[in-house]
Input
Amino acid sequence: MDIIKLKARQREGKGKSYTRKARAQGWVPAIYYGHNRQPLSIEVDNKEFATIVRNRKLTHVIDLGIENQDESMAVIKEIQRNVIKDNIFYHIDFQHVNMNEKVTVEIPVEITGTSIGVKMGGILGNPVKSVMVECMPMDIPERVTIDVTDLDIGQSVHVSDINLPNVTLKEAPEEVLVVVTHPTRETADAGVSEEEQAGTESASS
Output
């Protein structure tokens, strides 16, 4: 995984009036913290950060390049954004990482393919959208990709089924990531015409 450079600088002011002015000038308020480090109030370039989000590289190690810091490698821990316009960012939490030590981060679960079970009328469930993993910073995967093409009705994929090189999943092994279930009565009825339903009802009366 490559390291992404993001323009950042120490925040010069405080308060809502300052942050509003900073956002208007293209800067997003943020905090940079870590073990044995004093939290540092910073701000990052909005356009550059939006590009990271758009390119789905939120799990990459980021070089903040903060002035007067010996090094400022970090991972994104939290993003506060507008619930309607998700390209508007309010605040970002960056956690310092030591490139020689393991880090625990959250990565998304991505589903690909169309399962056999779904083609036969089953319902695909994806109850877990992300998982916590532990690994060296340069081994952080962008996502957990699960191909459900061969998944039939009644079958599921658990955490224990996932194998990522040099990565430890910090979730319970029995945690269900994806499952194909039988269609519910409501779903089955939705595919039956009114005439067919009427015929079935009269036949059973």
Summary: The first strand starts at residue 4 and ends at 5. Helices lie at 15-24, 46-54, 116-119, 185-190, 194-204.
